[in-house]
Amino acid sequence: MPKFDVSKSDLERLIGKSFTVEEWEDLFLYAKCELDDVWEENGEIYFKADSKDTNRPDLWSAEGIARQIKWALGMGRGLPKYEVEKSDVVVYVDEKLKDIRPYGVYAIVEGLHLDEEALKQMINLQEKVALTFGRRRREVAIGIFDFDKVKPPIYYRAAEKTEKFVPLGFTEELTLEEILEKHEKGKEYGHLIKDKPYYPLLVDSEGKVLSMPPIINSEITGRVTTETRNVFVDVTGWDLRKIMLALNVVVTALAERGGKIKSVKVVYPDFEIETPDLTPKPFEVELNYIRKLAGLELSDEEIKDLLERMMYEVELEGGKAKLLYPAFRDDIMHARDVLEDVLIAYGYNEIEPEEPKIAVQGRGDKFVEFEDAVRELMVGFGLQEVMTFNLTNKEAQYDKMNLKYGNDYFNHPPAELVEIANPISPKWSALRNWLLPSLLDFLSQNTHEEYPQRIFEVGKATLIDESRETKTVSESKLAVALAHPRVTFTEAKEILDSVMRHLGFEYELEEVEHPSFIPGRAGKIVVGGKAIGVIGEIHPAVLENWGLEMPVAGFELFLRPLYTEPYL
């Protein structure tokens, strides 16, 4: 979870009211944070805020925390209002960036008066959003520039690797290729673009470089100081909706410092947009649902009051609350999310705990304990545990694995996926039915790390089961992937042997032809006459599909057939 430092006096200046340190411990809860530490430095009191929500990047800076607390205390009501004035600035996006880093959104914020603390918060927010919400700049990278040094129109274009500029923190020009080799940020994030035919570059009409997304800003325009009054904000990535949200978070935080937001026209090869878009988002919730799950006797007006203190615009109609919530939020996906805000405004500490009147004793699920024991076993073998997403897509589960959708590869994977009817993104359009593609995806994102890489996951695969009410079943599986220059089938089998021996099972291997594995180096794992998994060396075509140059061997199996009590 994101942690960051904030100044007590800066927070109180933004809120317009002072509090004791003891009061701040409770106030942070309104912003879904905990007060992790307090210290004094040069006569100033600082707090370390520990955010408890990775879906609320708007709360990862002093501005966001102060805004949330101000509203929760009734010093603000309903939606925060931000005026967006239209500017004549245009950014043109190069069609060649389509498969490199295709999207950019932009804004101008004028009339700022930044002190050192405000600068620190701006940089902190920029980095935290890109690191956590932006998945280490892969999905979101942010640049903030001194707009007075920029001459519009601006061009987000594909550049030759030999082009030069002075990166932030340097005094000499470097080629784009040299920046990836010599600059600290180039070494850290260069893997995001290193294999692309061109590198992204943001330049103005005079050819001055603003930045090389997602790596580094330019020294000329990218150094913002306390003397800077007007800034240009740039956000790039792969998902337009996601980078729009990040832009909204940054510009509204700067607006809390007194900045005036201006929009920018972004011209793509096939469409145009104006950014930022701060249009509030709609949602609807049943009032009785709030009362029932909260366990509180709240009137309609009391619910409305609590929601308005959490920055909702509320209209009560027919037993429902029709809501509008701010454009810098994207975490309202279910009525429970609204319920959580009601309870935060009400105050968790104000709710009287009740002992449940049930005559049973709770205990841990035995199979979950078995899964944990398997994890400990794998760590004991020197493997590193990873946790990947259950959501995936047909391409990752089949196409990249050299498989034909609709064919049942003895349940690794089965014939079909459980697909989502209306996915938000094609990347997350189905539930995975085997784990090895997830491990290969993980390896593909860590090719810049040292080898050997020996990873495993104990996770869920969702299969179609027409006999069940939900038509699906969630199966627990163990998957292992080993990547280094000399990896072989034998190494994977040695780990499998050890797993089976510790679990007390004998097994057989039957040679199979499986398109995901090299012919002659793949086997079906059979226990008690039933196939429970597959093992082998990954086919070169599959490695190429995932952008992997290192050989990989691994296995995957169902855990339920290996569960007995006692175990291990």
Automatic annotation (TrEMBL):
Q: Where in the cell is it found?
A: Cytoplasm
Q: Which GO terms describe its biological process?
A: phenylalanyl-tRNA aminoacylation
Q: Which domain of life is it from?
A: Archaea
The record's annotation in SMART domains points to: B3_4 (SM00873), B5 (SM00874)
Q: Which SUPFAM superfamilies match?
A: Class II aaRS and biotin synthetases, PheT/TilS domain, Putative DNA-binding domain
The answer on whether this UniProt entry bears the keyword Protein biosynthesis reads yes
Keyword Calcium assigned to the entry: answer is no
Primary localization: cytoplasm
> Record-annotated residues binding Mg(2+)?
D331, D337, E340, D341
Which key words tag this protein in UniProt? Aminoacyl-tRNA synthetase, ATP-binding, Cytoplasm, Ligase, Magnesium, Metal-binding, Nucleotide-binding, Protein biosynthesis
What does the record give under GO molecular function?
ATP binding; magnesium ion binding; phenylalanine-tRNA ligase activity; RNA binding
Note one Pfam family from the annotation: tRNA_synthFbeta
Write down the required cofactor(s). Answer: Mg(2+)
Q: Which top class of enzyme applies to this chain?
A: ligase
Query: The B5 domain covers which part of the protein?
Result: 278-353
Q: How does it assemble?
A: Tetramer of two alpha and two beta subunits.
Family label: Belongs to the phenylalanyl-tRNA synthetase beta subunit family. Type 2 subfamily.
Give the protein name, as stated in the record: Phenylalanine--tRNA ligase beta subunit
Recall the taxonomic lineage recorded for the source organism.
Archaea, Methanobacteriati, Methanobacteriota, Thermococci, Thermococcales
